[in-house]
Amino acid sequence: MNNCLKGLLLVGGKSSRMGSDKSELVFRDGLSQRERGVKLLESVCDQVFISVAEGEGDHVIADAFGNVGPLGAIASAQQHDPDATWLVLACDLPLLEEKHLQDLVDQHTADSAATYYLSASDGLPEPLCAIWSPATCDLVLESIQSGKRCPRSVLGKITGQALPSPGLWPLANTNTEADAIEIRARIDGTTTEKTITLSYFAQLRELSGTDNESHTTDSVTPAGVFEEVRAKYQMPLKRKGMMVAVNGDFTDWNHRLTEGEELVFIPPVAGG
Q1: Whole-prediction pTM
Q2: Residue 128 carries which DSSP code?
Q3: Spans of all domains in the chain
Q4: Exposed e or buried b for every residue in 204-238, given b needs 16+ CB within 10 A?
Q5: What are the protein's UniProt keywords (predicted)?
Q6: What contacts 248, CB < 8 A, 6 or more positions away?
Q7: Alpha-carbon distances, residue 75 vs 15, 108, 120, 151 (angstroms)
Q8: Where are the alpha helices (DSSP H) in 44-145?
Q9: According to CATH, what is the number of the domain 5-163?
Q10: What is d(CA 105, CA 150) in angstroms, rounded to the nearest whole number?
Q11: Which parts of 13-113 fold into alpha helices (H)?
């Protein structure tokens, strides 16, 4: 790349589903997710900045567009330096490695407006582990001004370089306690393989093409299994608003799965 590559670590989210500041959680190497994210970006970028909802300081970029989410953070960075190419990274990706960022940098070319991974879950662009070039500035700003805040939809409108997914877990976010349980188990090497029965209702039955199936997994919670199912069937549905039952009883996504259990996912609207 001919122009300067700058890193932007996103830490300005509300972390409402986690219940505490995700950027301060420690998963690996004794570093908070904020510290580890900076370290990862420093390994491939010329300069690194931290995106925050509000505040000031060296290498800090405050959101200049109000409460519009990650796209506002990207627009704020582009306003800060419209000539830079920005490697944008969410802070809550504990299983992401330096090699994943290096692959993005190596594959980015001068004629690519953006370079990004495709999601293992739904095949759509992953905008928060991606390179955004100056060519995206106008479209990002236009989207915000028109009330469209989805960074994925912006990437879908440009000529970008799409890389195959690095797998389900490298780009797994820690949005909830269940996510944290899954990721810690993988870091600690405490996952164990087990076979369970999955039953599907309503939309999930239609998307999977079956009522039930046997499923072998090393996930430790229903949350992890659901992400595996999403990836297997490329489901557009997410866990938000969905209920889960184990062995006929409703439970939460943190439930620790054991061999032979029956797991049922129930979408928000299960019938007419």
Answers
A1: 0.91
A2: E
A3: 5-163, 177-266
A4: bbebbeeeeeebebbbbbbbbbbbbbbbebebebe
A5: Cytoplasm, GTP-binding, Magnesium, Metal-binding, Molybdenum cofactor biosynthesis, Nucleotide-binding, Transferase
A6: 262
A7: 21, 20, 26, 10
A8: 70-80, 98-107, 137-145
A9: 3.90.550.10
A10: 23
A11: 33-42, 70-80, 98-107
